[in-house]
Amino acid sequence: MPRDNMASLIQRVARQARITFRSPAGPAFGENLHRLQQLLDEVRAEDLHLAPRGPSAAAAAAAGGGPPWAGVAPPVSYMHICETESFSMGVFLLRSGACIPLHDHPGMNGMLKVLYGTLRIACMDTLPAGAAAPPPAAGSGPCLRALFRSRQHYTPASPPCLLSPHTDNLHQIDAVDGPAAFLDILAPPYDPQHGRDCHYYRLLEGPPADAEPAALPREVWLVETAQAADFWCGGEPYPGPRVCL
Predict the structure, then answer these.
(1) pLDDT tens digits for 4-29?
(2) How far is the CA of 142 from the CAs of 132, 138, 202, 223, in angstroms?
(3) 150 exposed, middle or buried (CB, 10 Å; 0-12, 13-18, 19+)?
(4) How many angstroms separate the Cα of 6 from the Cα of each of 13, 49, 160?
(5) N or C of the chain: less Cβ packing under 10 Å?
(6) How many CA atoms lie within 13 A of 118 on its CB side?
């Protein structure tokens, strides 16, 4: 059963997010962000009336039908909680083995808190292209030079994973050993009309499959790609405490 104070906890998270991201360049931003991180770290799956599972088959219908998802539950589903001009908040549910491909968050801050399951999150920073030329494997797609900073496992016991406009802004999220879910805050929300559109990338270089993983951090080249055909995101209703802003 949810703890008695959890209906107020997710409300307090939303209110603190509104305070924090209303003035991201203000002198109190660091202190407000730390307070938001502390609150987010307290949230558990039962607080949002969630139990470990993958996205439901019902979400396939919510996705709108048609190839490639007709009659098939999506690999990832989203539960919308709230959105303002300064931030959005919701829950992503990943089926076992699902992956949210490498993507960016232009000019955005973000916070991710695992609710159940285990996620492997790879984080990268964009770098100036400089005089270096991308590898021949790049082909004709737009290329991006990046710093591959980390690849870590996150569980409900882990602190939130943070990203900023300049640090860990690109990331890939994989569900490991079963389904997983995480609470997600993005500030400000995606908005293509204001230059905040999601772009997907593919890593151009890496060790052979039978080699030891290359040490991190390291510089890499990425090529921009279209959204993968086997990745799409369905929608499900949010079952947790109501949030009012």
Answers:
(1) 444 479 999 999 999 999 988 889 99
(2) 14, 8, 11, 6
(3) middle
(4) 10, 10, 18
(5) N
(6) 7
Q: Which two tokens stand for residue 49?
A: 């009336």
Please state, in angstroms and rounded to a whole number, the distance separating the CA atoms of residues 72 and 59.
Answer: 9
Residue 67 identity (one-letter amino acid): P
What is the H or E stretch that residue 20 is in?
Answer: helix 6-22
* CATH number belonging to domain 74-129+141-235: 2.60.120.10
Q: Check whether the bond before 241 is cis (ω within 30° of 0).
A: no
First-last CA distance in the chain: 26
Let me know how long the chain is: 245
Give the pLDDT band of residue 84 (cuts 50, 70, 90): very high
Enumerate the domain spans of the chain: 74-129+141-235
Q: Residue 193 contacts by C-beta under 8 Å, 6 or more apart in sequence?
A: none
The pLDDT tens digits of the residues spanning 184-194 come to 999 999 998 88
pLDDT tens across 40-83, in order?
999 999 999 999 887 765 555 454 444 444 557 899 999 999 99
Angle CA 227–113–190, to nearest 5 = 40
Residue 219 near residue 135, CB atoms below 8 Å: no
